[in-house]
Specification:
By secondary structure, the protein is mainly alpha-helical. Helices cover about 75% and strands about 5% of the residues. It has 15 helices and 3 strands. A 3-stranded antiparallel beta sheet has the order 2-1-3.
Length: about 400
């Protein structure tokens, strides 16, 4: 059985007397000494790294923008001829996000300990996904790490811009719905009871059906609000639990792609993300089967992932990409034909990039069209809900006024 590795903090001097520090994983202090001597360093201090207790946090604490800035600066430094370890040291100390800075410091320590940059990044899968790690590995193997990092930063920026557009289009109706829910709850719990008391004081007869319905709804809201809230939470938890299952996720993802307005935007987003990611991987020298697997795992949609893995299986059998891609129905016929042309001319990566540029613009147009359509619909919805409540409560007053006049 192999000995278990531990983390050791070390301090050593170079031949010129410069002091260097880092963290290295090894079986023992003696192993750390030997590794440092192989790097022509004279050990000064080697001790076991103490266990650090950290409070649990939600998410990674690292934003996409942090990774984009890091990738761009890293590419510039590598292009300028700085060693990887020195680049990581500078970037870890100057990172605005201190948590990300600590992660970069750990990566630097692993690289100093003998790991490749891609293997060191692989230890943080929530920060650096498979796409990032595999591209870095391709850059290291081909000696074009600076070029790969530049492509990565461009890819991340475009991908983030694409996601931001779709989320921005969806945020407006969600905010309006939340405001509408708050307004309705306030009306039902605070305003409607005042009208109900007034009608009772007047001693009127039978109330109109819409008014009675609103009063009954107000009564239920006031007396059963805790149960309604708990029921809503349970429904949400159940929905989340269903989405964690394979069948539930597949059904949900398939439904979202078929929605009347949003589905069109999501399908165009799928095309843009697939072609952009695939083009970046192929142009960086990643084999097509590995590229298809990475694209499938980072698709973010189960239906799309299954379709891409189906295409990958057919490619492994010796077929081209365009034929099985047409069978899946994920891509429009025009996109499949352009991919087929790219395969025949040997410029598939360039063709995929052109398709990505075109469909990113198409997403812009689709999002703008969806937003312009949603805004009047939401205003009509708000007016109907709030106006319906107000009219329902004024109907008895109109009837009383008519009786008095007659």
């Amino acid at each position: 059985m192999a000995a278990q590795t531990k983390a050791f903090i070390w301090e050593a001097r170079t031949r010129t007397g410069e002091v260097k520090k880092g963290v290295m994983e090894a079986e023992s202090e003696e192993a750390v000494h030997n590794k440092l001597k192989l790097q022509q360093l004279s050990p000064v201090l080697v001790k076991k790294q103490p266990i650090q207790l950290t409070l649990p946090t939600i998410g990674t604490g690292v934003k996409v923008n942090d990774i984009v800035v890091f990738t761009r600066l890293f590419a510039t430094m590598i292009d300028a001829g700085l060693p990887i370890v020195q680049c990581l040291e500078i970037l870890s100390t100057q990172a605005e996000n201190k948590r990300f800075g600590k992660i970069l410091a750990q990566i630097r320590g692993s690289v100093e300990g003998g790991l490749t940059l891609s293997d060191a990044m692989k230890r943080f899968p929530k920060i650096f996904d498979q796409l990032f790690v595999n591209l870095v590995a391709a850059g290291e193997a081909g000696g074009i790490l600076d070029t790969i990092l530049q492509r990565l930063s461009v890819h991340l920026e475009k991908n983030q811009k694409l996601i931001r557009r779709v989320k921005g289009a969806m945020s407006y109706p969600i905010i309006v719905l939340c405001i509408a829910a708050v307004v309705v709850v306030v009306l039902l719990t605070k305003v409607i009871p005042v009208f109900e008391k007034m009608f009772k004081d007047f001693g009127g007869g039978k109330l109109p059906a819409p008014t009675q319905f609103v009063i009954d709804l107000s009564y239920a809201m006031r007396n059963y609000l805790p149960y309604i809230v708990v029921g809503g939470i349970l429904l949400f938890a159940g929905w989340r639990a269903i989405l964690r299952t394979r069948k539930g996720r597949l059904a949900w993802d398939a439904m979202t792609l078929k929605l009347p307005v949003l589905g069109n935007v999501l399908r165009k987003t799928v095309v843009a993300r697939f072609t952009r990611t695939m083009g970046t991987l192929l142009s960086s020298g990643v084999p097509i089967l590995d590229a298809m697997e990475i694209v499938g795992k980072t698709a973010g949609n189960t239906v799309v992932q299954d379709g891409i893995m189906f295409v990958r299986a057919r490619i492994s059998e010796g077929k081209d990409m365009s034929t099985p891609l047409m069978e899946t129905g994920l891509m429009p016929p025009m996109v499949v034909q352009m991919i087929s042309v790219g395969e025949q001319t040997g410029a598939l990566d360039a063709m995929l990039t052109k398709i990505a540029d075109f469909y990113e613009e198409e997403v812009d147009v689709a999002v703008a069209s969806m937003t312009s359509m949603i805004e009047p619909l939401m205003m009509v919805f708000l007016g109907t809900v709030v106006g319906g409540l107000v009219i329902a409560m004024y109907l008895p007053i109109f009837e009383m006024a008519g009786n008095i006049k007659s």
